[in-house]
Design goal:
With about 290 residues, the chain is mainly α. It has 13 helices and no strands. The radius of gyration is 25 Å and the shape is globular. The protein starts with about 35 loop residues before the first helix and ends in a 5-residue tail after the last helix.
Length: about 290
């Protein structure tokens, strides 16, 4: 005798019928959800405390916080790459650099919500920043240190935060990412000068004609060579850092013109000077000799 299938009971209006073995677990009565425990979303979404009544300040505040998170992951990638280069694990370093390229693209896209601020819009909450400035970002400073832009004076703003100051001081006295690249090139038999290899790594990296010649030789060889692929991964990073600096310059110029920046900086004039500098300079100049 055949049995008739029982019809599925109607679901509440606006919802879909549940399939017991596919329905997600929704009862976490013993505490917060595993998602919350891992992501800490409740912490992240309650870190915004605007200091003005202007609704635009929320966009500025959240965007800046998102930038800080991208700085953090990019520092992680570049430190991973530097460590891999010390250990002669070039493919691991290239993978980390390639990930950082995608992360830099996302970081640079963070300027879009701010890129068309008019002076009136920015002035509506600029006073809430007081003397605050992105120039004071410790994580961004660690990014710059990893790129070879070292300066002991950049530790001064962080003297009141012992943990942050200690992390920056450690980064100041460690080889930057490019130092590890040049040491690798020397171990692979390229003529990197001793003066470059033994330089004071707490100082800003300065270009070298001999290093330029090394990169010219690398690029004149097999384009699929491991070192050539490393050079291109570094160039991708350098290009996006340059774009970051220029996007910062353009957003600032649009929002405040040539007025002094918050925190006492020269504003646009200071950013223009920064935008003119190339990261990993010999990777760019060597191309003229290939």
């Amino acid at each position: 005798m055949s049995q008739q299938a029982h019809p599925t009971p109607p679901s509440p209006e606006g919802s879909e019928p549940e399939t017991p073995h596919l329905a997600p677990k929704i009862d976490w009565s013993q505490g917060t959800t595993p998602y919350e425990d891992y992501v800490r979303a409740d912490v992240l979404t309650h870190l915004q405390h605007p200091l003005s009544d202007d609704p635009g300040e929320m966009v500025f505040l959240v965007t800046t916080q998102v930038m800080e998170l991208w700085f953090t992951v990019i520092v992680h990638e570049w430190e991973t790459a530097a460590r891999a280069l010390r250990e002669d694990r070039v493919p691991v370093a290239i993978d980390a650099l390639k990930r950082s390229v995608r992360e830099l693209q996302a970081l640079n896209a963070s300027w879009r919500p701010l890129a068309q601020l008019t002076p009136v819009q920015f002035n509506s909450y600029r006073s809430a920043l007081g003397e605050g400035s992105g120039f004071q970002s410790a994580m961004y400073r660690r990014m710059e240190f990893l790129l070879g832009e070292k300066s002991a004076s950049m530790l001064v703003p962080h003297r009141g935060a012992p943990r942050v100051h200690a992390e920056l001081e450690k980064a100041l006295h460690e080889p930057c990412l490019y130092d590890e690249v040049l040491r690798l090139l020397a171990r692979r038999g390229h003529a990197v000068p001793d003066a470059v290899l033994r330089r004071d790594v707490s100082q800003r990296y300065e270009p070298s004609e001999e290093v330029e010649s090394v990169w010219a030789a690398v690029y004149a060889g097999d384009p699929d060579d491991e070192l050539a692929r490393l050079g291109e991964a570094l160039t991708d990073v350098a290009e996006l850092v340059w774009r970051w600096r220029n996007d910062h310059l353009l957003a600032t110029r649009r929002a405040m013109g040539a007025k002094p920046g918050t925190g006492g900086s020269a504003g646009v004039a200071w950013l223009e000077k920064r935008a003119q500098k190339n990261v990993f300079p010999e990777l760019w100049t060597a191309r003229s000799h290939v």
